[in-house]
Amino acid sequence: MILRNGVTSLWGVADVFWVFVLRLSLVYLLGKAILPLLPGISPRLVEVLDRSILLGLTLFFVLRKGDWHTLGVRFDHPGRQVLYGILGGVFLLLLAEGTQRALVTLLAADIGTNPLVKAAAGAKNPAALVWPLLIGGVLVPITEEIYYRGMAFSAFTRRWGLVIGLPASALFFSVAHLSGVWFVQIAVVGAGLAVIFHLTGSLLPGIIAHGLVNSTRLLMVYWGS
Questions:
Q1: Which residue from 58, 60, 51 is spatially nearest to 27, judged by alpha carbons?
Q2: Average model confidence (pLDDT) for the chain?
Q3: Burial class (CB in 10 A: 0-12, 13-18, 19+), 25
Q4: Where in the sequence is the domain holding 88, given as residue range(s)?
Q5: Rounded average pLDDT over 183-198
Q6: Which one of 104, 109, 160, 203 is most buried, counting C-beta atoms within 10 A?
Q7: Per-residue H/E/C for the chain
Q8: Mean pLDDT calculated for residue range 187-199
Q9: pLDDT (mean) for 65-92
Q10: Which of the four pLDDT bands, split at 50, 70 and 90, describes residue 182?
């Protein structure tokens, strides 16, 4: 939004961390106070609720000070954006697989610690794989690209510039995943997604790339189990 004297006031680093803290607090409250009252609730629904909280908080803080276009919701040259997303996804998939093999070899890392990976590995038929693919390949990329790239990366680069803001956003992306031994891999992928967003100015290529990486890896786990 443009204020007096042409000064631009958009969401900042503090807003990014407010979303992070409020999301953790709401998810904790949900897990401790509400879910115990619903013993039969599906883990899939819990994942959807968590992502809905992240999306809702992000849009609340962003749209108070900015707009959809500033967030990166742009659909100009859609064919080009889709192409960039596919090419970026293939590159990031190769990068992710390379770092995963290195971590498995050097640190004996367990790739089955992710809940979606567990669901894919335990799927008995293609129908059982639908939910992991919808969550990991569609819902997660949309919500995470809007928050971590559209909101966080933008705020970090406005505050510290690209040289510091890009690695800071990648580290934040990895830390927020509580990824343990997979910290490096997630940070590398986060940096790649930030580069895609920076070069295109749109969330769409990153969403496509992110979804391609997640979906392909889930399918590989399913086929290999």
A1: 51
A2: 88
A3: exposed
A4: 4-224
A5: 94
A6: 203
A7: CECHHHCECCCCHHHHHHHHHHHHHHHHHHHHHHHHHCCCCCHHHHHHHHHHHHHHHHHHHHHHHCCHHHHCCCCCCHHHHHHHHHHHHHHHHHHHHHHHHHHHHHHCCCHHHCHHHHHHHHCCCHHHHHHHHHHHHHHHHHHHHHHHHHHHHHHHHHHHCHHHHHHHHHHHHHHHCCCHHHHHHHHHHHHHHHHHHHHHCCHHHHHHHHHHHHHHHHHHHHHHC
A8: 96
A9: 95
A10: confident
**What residues form DSSP beta bridges with 132?**
none
Q: What's the rounded Cα separation, in Å, for the pair 66 and 221?
A: 40
Which amino acid type is present at position 90? V
Identify residue 74 by its one-letter amino acid code. Answer: R
Q: 2 has which bridge partners?
A: 8
CA–CA separation, 110 vs 99, rounded Å?
13
Count of structural domains, the chain: 1
Q: What per-residue confidence (pLDDT) applies to 107?
A: 62
- Look at the block and give the residue holding tokens 């510290």: 160
- Name the token pair of 118: 């567990």
Segment 124-163, tens digit of pLDDT: 888 888 988 999 999 999 999 999 999 999 999 999 999 9
